[in-house]
């Protein structure tokens, strides 16, 4: 898969721009504030329906305009596709493929990309919501139907929270309890599928993460991932203390569930009676391990926090409360890793994601996007990163300084100045 042409109208600082791209590396160069990142942000939006820079889509519309348009020509499975999304300041966004209207949420089915930017350092150092979003976006890129499952779960969660708030305000009533149990069933059904799919994804990321980290850092610091699950007692609000977390190591849970003692994160301690979450490739609600299915664990967890939920008026367990723990040198990267190590971990995580997508995609490699990455790296890491990405069908790179980027990645260079493509 690759982008052959990008057209923007009223997007960020671009009134209108046309940008051709070539196979292999494409380097976008320009001083800070000229619009380099805006180009790759637009492409990232096509594949994830979100921006890596802002949480509201209206921020991407050019000042004074009611809508912005992203239009990209793609080479997809040997055929050409024209994909388009109109981002509206008010009302729903609109999407088309080959001039036919589609549901906006179906757009990622047609374009797969992995973007790494300085903001991704927050994956290591930020709050759990960013790590959940990373997993869910990757899940949808690999299995587009999960977009519907995630949307349904969010809807059910909102409805259940509304009922809990109502029960708190008016006092618990029998009719409300009966309605709550109906929402419980749907929450458990959808949430269990999300939990199982996330845990399986974490397991699959393990090997390519280790390979990518060593390729970037030049050293093996033992990077791996742990799924911290609220249905097993992990407490998002107390994640810093980590005392009550149940963190699962995907590569080990097939045989046993490794519960990590937070103050001695160096190694797993004794198991929780064999309880755990399935990591088989045929994931979904009902996956089982020694102590029962994910749905059983979810239902028991909801029962255990019922009184607390009614007191607080919110749902306290489920995939919306889970976390992903990054381990490096047998310690949590958050709080222990240096800036350079954190940067390498976040970059390796994105490279590992791209590797998974290229393994199971019939449409070829995802487009790999590196936004302002090379300025943060020393010469040796620049060379190693260049070697790690040159095998992808298409790589888009932004840089403020041409000399920061290894020569082998600068064969096709696009110069940007004040929202326009200019001659070099």
TrEMBL record:
It comes from the Bacteria. One of its GO terms (molecular function) is single-stranded DNA binding. PROSITE patterns: RECF_1, RECF_2. Residues 3-399 form the RecF/RecN/SMC N-terminal domain. Keywords: ATP-binding, Cytoplasm, DNA damage, DNA repair, DNA replication, DNA-binding, Nucleotide-binding, SOS response. ATP binds at residues 30-37. It comes from Cryobacterium fucosi. This is DNA replication and repair protein RecF. The gene is recF. Its main location: cytoplasm.
């Amino acid at each position: 898969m690759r982008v052959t042409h990008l057209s923007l109208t009223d997007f960020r600082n671009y009134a209108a721009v046309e940008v051709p791209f070539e196979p292999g590396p494409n380097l976008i160069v320009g001083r800070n504030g000229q619009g380099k990142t805006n180009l790759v942000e637009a492409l990232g939006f096509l594949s994830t329906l979100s921006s890596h820079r802002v949480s509201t889509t209206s921020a991407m519309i050019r000042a004074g305009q009611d809508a912005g348009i992203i239009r990209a020509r793609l080479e997809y499975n040997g055929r050409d596709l024209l994909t388009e999304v109109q981002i509206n300041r008010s009302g729903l966004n609109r999407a088309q493929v080959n001039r036919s209207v589609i549901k906006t949420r179906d757009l990622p089915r047609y374009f797969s990309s992995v973007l790494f930017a300085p903001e991704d350092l927050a994956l290591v150092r930020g709050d759990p919501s960013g790590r959940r979003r990373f997993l869910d976006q990757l899940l949808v890129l690999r299995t587009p139907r999960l977009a519907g499952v995630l949307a349904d779960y969010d809807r059910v969660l909102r409805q259940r929270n509304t009922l809990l708030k109502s029960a708190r305000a008016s006092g618990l009533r029998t009719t409300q309890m009966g309605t709550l149990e109906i929402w419980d069933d749907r929450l458990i059904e959808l949430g269990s599928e999300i939990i199982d799919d996330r845990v399986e994804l974490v397991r699959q990321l393990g090997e390519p993460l280790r390979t990518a980290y060593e390729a970037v850092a030049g050293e093996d610091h033992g990077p791996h991932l742990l799924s911290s699950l609220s249905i097993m007692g992990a407490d998002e609000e107390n994640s810093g203390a980590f005392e009550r977390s149940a963190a699962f190591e995907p590569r080990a849970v097939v045989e046993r569930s490794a519960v990590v003692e937070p103050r001695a994160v160096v190694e797993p301690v004794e198991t929780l009676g064999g309880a755990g979450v399935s990591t088989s490739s045929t994931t979904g609600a009902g996956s089982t391990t020694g102590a029962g299915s994910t749905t059983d664990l979810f239902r028991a967890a909801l029962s255990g926090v019922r009184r607390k939920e009614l007191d607080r008026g919110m749902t306290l367990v489920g995939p919306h409360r889970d976390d992903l723990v990054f381990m490096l040198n047998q310690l949590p990267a958050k709080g222990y890793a240096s800036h350079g190590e954190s940067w390498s971990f976040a970059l390796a995580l994105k490279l590992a994601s791209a590797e998974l997508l290229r393994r199971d995609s019939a449409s070829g490699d995802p487009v790999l996007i590196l936004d302002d990455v090379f300025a943060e790296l020393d010469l040796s890491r620049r060379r190693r990163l260049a070697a790690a990405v040159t095998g992808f069908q298409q790589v888009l790179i932004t840089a403020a300084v041409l000399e920061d980027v290894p020569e082998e990645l600068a064969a096709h260079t696009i110069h940007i100045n004040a929202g326009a493509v200019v001659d070099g």
